[in-house]
Write a structure and sequence with these properties.
Largest sheet: none
Shape: elongated
Structural class: mainly alpha
Strand content: under 5%
Distance between the termini: 50 Å
Radius of gyration: 20 Å
Order of helices and strands: HHHHHHH
Helix content: over 70%
Number of helices: 7
CATH architecture: Up-down Bundle
CATH topology: Methane Monooxygenase Hydroxylase, Chain G, domain 1
């Protein structure tokens, strides 16, 4: 009976851990979407909402840290269970960074002038949508322990990088041709760079999901294949 109680208590803790990760990831997704709306529309209220939400994301990371440490201390998980807890700890840290990038984008949106003059503003939301879909899908892969889905998400990061390269070239050309817009164009470059980093972080989460599900890193398989 004591063993059953211990197992149930551990399962409850893991369910709680997964729920906190899902909540944290959902908030980061909303922040990215709203930061894009703030950028395109110049909406100061959305900027405030994203900044306020980041505090909730930070609080959830702290709660996940405390719960994970308690699980390790009280339950002494091993093998698959320990991988699960460690992955959750790392994933929470990455999602917190994604929230920070969304906040950076929201803050930068208030420094962009004459939005209609910038062609890259048609590309940046599309880039953010792709990065946002990576974040959404990697959280789905985490919830389902889907290693194959995690691998597919990692492959998508090349498209985000291609978007960034295209936007970078476009904005540099725009700055050369329109020196008066250099300050605003520099802010858009900063935004694009933050979105590119969100794609990188979604990739990092996907690698952790793959590890939690299989016990092996995708990079290990790639190195063996190359060898």
């Amino acid at each position: 009976m004591a063993q059953e109680h211990t197992v149930k208590a551990f399962d409850d803790d893991i369910t709680r851990l997964r729920g906190l990760i899902a909540e944290m990831g959902g908030l980061a997704e909303v922040s990215l979407a709203e930061s894009m709306d703030a950028l395109v529309k110049g909406n100061d209220e959305l900027v405030k909402a994203v900044i306020a939400r980041d505090r909730r994301i930070d609080a959830l990371e702290a709660e996940i840290d405390r719960l994970a440490v308690r699980i390790i201390a009280l339950r002494a998980p091993m093998a698959d269970d320990l991988r699960e807890v460690i992955a959750a700890l790392k994933i929470a840290g990455v999602i917190e960074r994604i929230g920070d990038y969304a906040k950076n984008i929201a803050k930068a949106s208030g420094k962009v002038e004459n939005r209609k003059k910038f062609e890259p503003l048609t590309l940046i939301p599309a880039m953010a949508e792709l990065a946002g879909s990576m974040v959404h899908d990697v959280l789905t892969a985490y919830a389902a322990r889907d290693a194959a889905m995690a691998a597919e998400i990692i492959a998508r990061d090349d498209k985000v990088d291609a978007f960034y390269d295209s936007i970078f070239r476009n904005l540099v050309s725009h700055m050369v041709e329109n020196p008066a817009t250099i300050s605003s164009a520099a802010q858009l470059l900063f935004v694009a760079r933050n979105i590119e980093r969100i794609g990188d972080h979604a990739t990092n989460v996907a690698e952790m999901v793959h590890y939690a599900a299989t016990g092996s890193y995708l990079t290990d398989k790639e190195e063996r294949a190359e060898g």
